[in-house]
Amino acid sequence: MRQKGKGQTLDFNLSKKGTSRRDLLKICENAVKYSVRTSHPYFRNQLYGGVDPYALAGTWLSEALNTNQYTFEVAPFFMTTERAILKKIREIIGWPDGRGDGIFAPGGSTGNMYGIVAARYNKFPESKVEGMFGLPRLTLFISQDAHYSSIKAAHWLGFGTKSVIAVPTDELGRMIPEELEKCKCGAVPFCVVATSGTTVLGAFDPLEAIAKICRANDIWLHVDACWGGSALLSKKHRHLMKGVENADSLIWNPHKMLGAPLQCSPFVIRHEGLLHKCNSASATYLFQQDKFYDVSYDTGDKSFQCGRKVDGFKLWTMWKARGDNGLEALVSNTFQCAEYVHELIKNRPGFKMVIPEVQCTNVCFWYIPECLRNLEETEEWWTKMEKVAPEIKRRMTVEGSLLIGYQPLKHKNLRNFFRLVLTCQPPLTTENMDFVVSEIDRLGRD
Ligand code: ABU
């Protein structure tokens, strides 16, 4: 496999003979040269970007120490830091004395699966042994704007994607509690996955109202806070997740807004003991109960994985370095930049907002080239408009000045629009926001 780079051919083949140090160095240089600079302030393409330097140092250290996060005997320091950071997260959620349990998951999709499995186990503990045999048909509720991982989980967990009901959302993309109430029909409802910070619009589902419905109907409430969970760190913004303390479980991705290196996905659960009962397989070569130390530090059996990377330490390092106040300042700055750019775009000719207010730190808008301005928004107009974002994206990718994503939102009948994603690293400024907007204007010229 040979790929042509600018002015040189890159050799990706592997051969019997090794490679000299000089050539290896060249390969390293090329890896850097041909990789996307995701830490550049204008990489705003995905729900991650930038890296926290303290967390990166933590990652380098744990990678170099190369251990496995399943038992205290091979990872005493990291098992202790994981325990500490999970407790801190539970405290911030508002669970009394930070009680509960948790585990770092390999990403948000798996974190949602942890919540759904726990919900099923909680209602039907026999499912661990019997699987779906003998169980009634189950129903899982998500919102229309929820992340697709719950649908994948329904397949992987064997109750099937037809058992997932997508509850309608309002104009901002938030689950409508009255619609959830109406949906609770037919099969046995066992879990609602509410979202704090939806992938595209950044909507926060109303957790308090949803929790009330869950409580009244004995339904587990799992919160997918992968994207928006960082709002909990900011006194000014944590109201977006009002009612979160009623959740039974929650997944958060500090590798998204907060800039922890990928991946960093703490899953937490309010019910002590359930995670272990639900997931344990009691491998006797790892989790002997007659060890000489406190085996509650051997948390690996709560996970569905065997080998597990040290993902908690990077977040612990960042938190230790910055403290609650430092993290709050970063999150608040990011929200402020989102509010600033929203106002800037709202009042600028050629830009049209998709939703009227900022919810999380994604800002969604259309760019209207001059030839399409001040015209009636007919079907023909929209057919032309939906080609604009892909073309501007092509131009920005080729120039390399900026990278932001676009997408349609079919269930809301929204044609291709831009989603500008703001994250905490590197800390953004209003000047950065001014540049993003004027650059889109420049790239979008007819
Ligand atoms: N896990 C959802 C992230 C996808 C995105 O960056 O848009």
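The radius of gyration is 23 Å.
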